[in-house]
Structures are given as structure tokens and as C-alpha cells.
Amino acid sequence: MTRLSTAVRGLVTALAALLSVTAASATARATPEPKAPKDFVALRSVDPTILQEMRYFTPHNFVGERIDGYRQPVCILTRPAAQALRKAQTKLLHQGYTLKVYDCYRPQRAVDHFVRWAKDLDDQAMKPEFYPQVDKTRLFEDGYIAEKSGHSRGSTMDLTIVKVPAGPTRPYVPGEPLVPCYAPQGERFPDNSVDMGTGFDCFDTLAHTLDPRIQGEQRSNRMLLKGTLEDLGFVNLAEEWWHYTYKPEPYPDTYFDFPVSRKSLTSSH
After folding, report:
1. How far apart are CA 158 and CA 245, in angstroms?
2. Per-residue confidence (pLDDT) for residue 215, from 0 to 100
3. Residue 240 a catalytic site member
4. What is the mean pLDDT of the chain?
5. pLDDT digits (tens, 9 = 90+) for 81-116
């Protein structure tokens, strides 16, 4: 009888533990993902002609893998920023060019992913392309990585210009030989962008928008992007020729964390 009681007690304990785990799992599943405010939109719904090459949805970035929070390769922005980009696109199309975005809204969880990667000094797989001359121990000090990003506020984007008709950009194959992002355009990873002097996300002073070493056609291309966007209220980050923020920002002090996904949008318009 004692053995039976012990067995029953053990069974009850095991069942209680199972129910506890099941309940915890159900609670975790029931926790809803954060949603975007109503004035966030998919760029494609505002201007479907702007090209999108969402790099952090792919492994072709300085981390070398898809970044946390990027569920779909979709550009999400506040509506005013998206509408201003549409105006810029109209101007550029008349000149035979199109915009292409590399990144738009970026959730805080993605920024946290960057920070974890930057602290892991053993992971330098993508160094030969993205930061060949920068010691990884200096990424925070030199300002390449930070714990907060303006992208998380929804009005900042990374973008370039492409000559139309736009040719395709081949996909990156993980493990393929890497070439420095500041190599001549014909040598670095192919991009259908006009020649800006460096590739996107190049951790190097040559990526500074007005670096005096960038001259000729490369400088003209940077100035075309800069002039077009600044006329419409965008402000460039001097250290990155591709980085622009639309002003005034609707959310200047808020860092969102909803996933990059159409499901995050509360409005499809």
C-alpha cells in the first residue's frame, strides 16, 4: 500500500509539473507581439517603384546572418518619411534613376543583436568585407555600433541610387570569398547601385559622405542622393553616405520593437 501511495504521489507530481510547463507555454504563446502605431506604413504601399534590398533579412551584412526581428524583407517607415521618399523618387525617375532602400525601421531587438555580436570578439567572419581596417574592439568607441539606433524611431532609412532600368543584384552565398567594401566597384560585392565609392555598411572613413578622397563620379553620385533628399527635409548622417532621417520625426524619443513584418502594421494603407 505504501508503494502504491508513493507511486501515486509521484504520478501526481509529474502530472502537475507537466501541466505547469503546458500552462507556461500557453502563456508564452498568448503574449502578443508589439504592433506598430497606425501611422507606420509599408513603403511599398506608398511607392511600389522604390527598390528594396533589405540586407538584414539576409546573411549579407556585417554580422553574417539574418538579424533578429526581421521576419520579412519589407521596408516599414512612418507615413511622413515614406511620403517624402515618394517625392524624392519622382524627382530621380525624371533623371533616369531610382531609389533603393537597404534598411528602414529597425526593431530594438535587432540593435540588441548588433550589440551582442560586437561584444563577441571571436566572431569576425565578415571582417574582410565590412570592417577590414577596424579592430573589432573599437566598434563602440568609434561609433559604428551603439545600443540605440535612430532607425528604431521609424523615420530613418539606409538607401542608394540605381540607374534605370535596374539590373539584378546576385544573392550573396555564405562562405564565399569576401572583398573589402572600399575596393573598386568592379572588385567588391556586386550591387546594382551607382558607384558611391564604398559598399553599404562599410565601416571605414571612406564612407563619410564628404570624405575628400571621394571625387569624380563617386562624389557626384553622393551629392545627387544628398541634394535630392535634403531638399525634401531629410538629414544625412555625416559618417554614412547611405543614412538619412526625415525631419521632423513623429517619434523623436521612442524606440520601437515590433518585428519587421506586414503583420506588425495596424493599417495596410
Report:
1. 9
2. 98
3. yes
4. 91
5. 999 999 999 999 999 999 999 999 999 999 999 999
Q: What is the DSSP string of the chain?
A: -HHHHHHHHHHHHHHHHHHHHHHHHHHHHHSPPP---TTEEEHHHH-TTSEE--GGGSS-SSSSSPPTTB-SS--EEEHHHHHHHHHHHHHHHTTTEEEEEEE----HHHHHHHHHHHH-TT--TTHHHH-TTS-GGGTTTTTS--S--GGGGTSEEEEEEEESSPPP-PPP-TT-----TTS-TTTSS--SB---SS-TT--SGGGSTT-TT--HHHHHHHHHHHHHHHTTTEEE-TT-TTEEEESS-S-TT------BSGGG-S---
Active site residue: 53, 129, 240, 249, which one?
A: 240
Quote the CA–CA distance of 21 and 23 in Å, as a whole number.
5
User: Using an 8 Å Cβ cutoff, are 229 and 236 in contact?
Assistant: yes
